[in-house]
Amino acid sequence: MTDSSNGPALTRRAAYEARLRRRSALIAAGSSAVIVLAIVILVPLAPGWTAVKKSFFNAEVFARTFPGLLQAFLMDIAIFAWCAPLIAIMGLAIALCRDVRNPVLFPLRAFGALYTDIFRGLPVILVIYLIGFGIPGLGLPRPWNSPYIWGSLALIVVYAAYVAEVIRSGIDSIHQSQRAAAQSLGLSEADTMRYVVLPQALRNVVPANMNLFIALQKDVALLSFIGPVEIFRQAGVYKSLMANFTPYVGAALIFLAITIPATRYADYLMSRQRGRR
Amino acid sequence: MKTQTLCAATLAATLAAGSAMAASHADCAAGKTLTDGVLTIATGNPAYYPWVADDKPQSGKGFEAATAYAIAAEMGFDAGSVKWVRTSFDEAIQPGAKNFDFNMQQFSITPEREQMVDFSLPYYTSAMAVLTTNAVVANGVEPTVASLKGVIWGADANTTAVPMLMQIVGPEKDPLLYNDNADVTAAIQAGQIDAALFDLPTALYLAAVLVDDGTVLGQFPADRSENPDQFGLLMEEGNPLKECVDAAITSLTDSGALAEIEAKWLQEATGVPIIE
Description:
A: mainly alpha; MetI-like fold; 11 helices
């Protein structure tokens, strides 16, 4: 009866727990402070620190190059914006291919499996070179040989393979009994997929797909290998002209400004989903 | 007795002075190299003709390989005391200890780079040249700045060709940039770019060997540019060897030896039309 934590006086147990919490908070703050101090004091003591500071954290170079980097980042955003929806559509199509149960359509199923095996197994940069230089090399006329088109396609086919696998795991997570129930109600196989399985499956895999899109946002920079001057390439040009790596640090900060909020959002979605279950 | 001693002393002094003259460059480098008695020189990976023949700098063939051995000899290192290593551009400019005494791979001297690393006196001043294909030329592209503004340009992102392109030509469409010569070549072959800007010797080599149907449309001569593309040896900032290298390059330039090496390896550079 006296065991109420809302009461004015703390019970002995509550007081003990509060003391414990205070103590661990103090220890955590203390150990963090020690680590931060050690980094702040010890790193500048290293003999090469002035040289490293001059070539990676050069304020003058940073100020000169940052506006150009921001400008170039618009290119990354544009490429991301047109790739992401196409990846979602193609990933879904491949996932559905892999779930086909009609024996006549077995070739589709085999295609889905082969597709994911190949494109998940290849390094992205190889696919970008192969599609970005190879297909236009076959003799396509302008503007159809643009590196923007074929480089984007390379990103799309690779990322669609990953997204397809994620969606398939979502589809597999819906219990077989739900399909049986839907069919007993008279739904066709296609309707079962559309109205019963997919709505649940897609909701389950939203956090996993968020992670893929964060990865895509960084891999857009790989398109610079076949010509487009996006932020990574622009930073490389500045690096070369000034023999200084600071522009890369600037580019990294711009990337982080996008990816950290996106990662936190994915975490939030995931924990909300756990809460619902 | 006295005059005799005096004579002997004078003779000895003269001899000493003479040998000091011959050995002055050699003494200069003593104790300043990475390994005593060995001169470590870095080149690219791979190193391209005509700078280094067959990617084998130790053969002494190719303009930069031959120049490197001439500089080494001037500094008192015989051919056996020269060691070659390979670095990328990024390795050459990274902070911290270097694994070379000097790095020789067509590094252009710029004031911005000069703040981070040391450059020797220039050993070559290059014209810039337009690499393209005969098919593009057949489409009506002419060696005039006005005509060149309208084409789609490419360049190696790691070179000073990028600002030169913007400055000299000022293309209407944004140029596409690549990691190395091989990628620029692939883009020309795929028809994604019409033309690319390189230093003249590199452009001639690419047109002759790597690009199918390739040609050098024309050149922007170095003496007409406000900041001509001058190549220097790259060294760690504050490297004490710099004065010895500079002395060696000065004496090679004055004696005409450098011009001879240039004539031997880069002679075809004449005869390319000049872009007005």
